[in-house]
Design brief:
The complex is a heterodimer of chains A (267) and B (332). By secondary structure, chain A is an all-alpha fold. Chain A has helices at residues 6-25, 28-55, 64-77, 79-84, 91-97, 110-116, 123-141, 147-173, 182-191, 204-213, 221-228, 235-260, and strands at residues 58-59, 62-63. Chain A has a two-stranded antiparallel ribbon. In chain A, a hairpin with a 2-residue loop joins strand 1 (58-59) and strand 2 (62-63). Helix content of chain B is 40%, strand content 28%. Chain B has 13 helices and 13 strands. In chain B, a hairpin with a 2-residue loop joins strand 8 (227-232) and strand 9. In chain B, helix 7 (160-172) packs parallel to helix 8 (190-207). At the A-B interface, helix 1 of A face helix 3, strand 5 and helix 4 of B.
Amino acid sequence: MKENNLAFYLKIYFKIISQDIKSKMSYRSDFIISTIGMIFTNIAGFVSFWIIFRNFPSINGWTYNEILFLYGFSLISLTPVQCLFDNNWNLRTHVYSGDFIKYYFRPINMFFYYQSEIFDVKGLGQLAFGIGTLAYSWHKIGLAVTPLSILMVIVFIITASLVMIALQNAAAATCFWLQNSFFILDFVNKFRDYARYPITIFNPVFKFIFTFVMPIAFIAYYPSLVILRPDSIPLLSWLSPLFGIVFFFLSYKFWMFGASKYSGTGS
Amino acid sequence: MSAIIEIKNITKEFKVLNRREGLKGSLKDLFSRDYKIVRAVDSISISIEQGEIVGYLGPNGAGKSTTIKMMTGVLEPTSGEILVNGNEPYRSRTRNSKEIGVVFGQRSQLWWALPLIESFRILKDIYRISDDDYDHMISLYKSLVDIDELLHKPVRQMSLGQRTLSDILAAFLHNPKIVFLDEPTIGLDVSMKAKIRTLINALNKEKNTTVILTTHDMGDVDALCRRIVIIDKGKMLYDNDIEHLKGFFGSYRTLKIGIDGDLTAEAEKIQKEFPEFSVSNDDEWISVLVDEEKSTVMDVLGRLQASRKIKDMKLEEISTEEVIKKIYEEGV
């Protein structure tokens, strides 16, 4: 019997996603309205950011353009959680209604099967906006564009996004035990807004929390330092890819453990 | 022939918190963990051969779904042993699910937004169905049911009947050795029920697929099952062929009549008139469980009508619940 390898999963994933996008586009007005909504959400987010930083040209030694870099970096690294793992928001409903049982009946990884079901196109606007912001600030700060720096940004963005995905997986999986788990997911999600600020502006208590308890500093701050402050990179920055992978793995295990404890509802 | 499903003394227990009443009680519940053990399935043993259609019956809460969840790998048995196609379902869920198909009542497992044909194509990839096998299966489906109009319809736009039909087709698509159907005809109209029964029968014949079916509908049992397993309160009551069981329900029908006056008093009077049948009543009806081997329903109705004015009447086939009650009362 053949094992299901990565190529197998990618093939199925792209099939599901392309069908899903196709069917979403067939509802034209819905598609157009949500696209417009997505553009306005991004503009509004950026405007509020811009108003704040116009008034404070530099914060704790961070210039406006550097903060912009951080902002763009966080937007990109928060895209995968938005696009690919959006079904975590529905986990609670599936679990309580008993519909979750259907994910046990296919010969593929349950976590994959569950997350592959929904692809949120709205996140792509955020991605475009993030790339634009990052490129603009990159240029303004005058950072060199080398193959190495591009590669590093890509690697650090991917591993940074794993941190947010891990937080969301873990928060969503609490519904296997808790009756009212929505507030946990919502709570975690609210914190991701803080990811776009340099952690040095927070007091030591929050600095500790955002690094070790709710590790959102790994979403943009620590990985960005590798590019922005190449002279004095803290150890935590180099460790951030490792953190991302470890957090993601643990959250996956936690999610699967929750699923194995699920007994379903009667029918 | 060796058994495809071999269940030996399985038991499933759930831990349930003893909840106290009122606000004070729930506060106490927060701190004390006072559990009781509920035995949903109590040492059941079944052995099922390839190609059988087995009706798995029992009242609500009897433990049917729990047993099916153990056979499909969702739940781990507390004790005992299950082998499905040589696999332990809970330990090797992925391997087991390649050889089984599952339809769980009204919960569709298809991709909600996609047309049926796209769901089929994704399943083809997931189960690694070869082109030949896939084409063969689709043409078999086309010869059995009218699926052309369904294939290009998104699942969410389908009626409940169409969705159930689609789910059953999807469950058989990878030609599994066993298909579990949990209440496949629930909520469907008569013609759809007939269509689905014909389909299940045909697929079972064509592919020699083992089918495990839970239902509350004696019509399903009559049309499909040659063997019946009945459980109640987690315990096995009956495991034998359908002819044997027909002795319990085949000749029985419930005659319900509506009359004026005190129904309880009237029911007692009727009971005296017909000591051989059991008579009961609720707020609306007086029910007489008639054994047609002793006298016909028409006969009973005629005698009842002679002495009182009957406003309304209806006739019911015996339900699973009544069969179980009779098995309890009289033994097998």
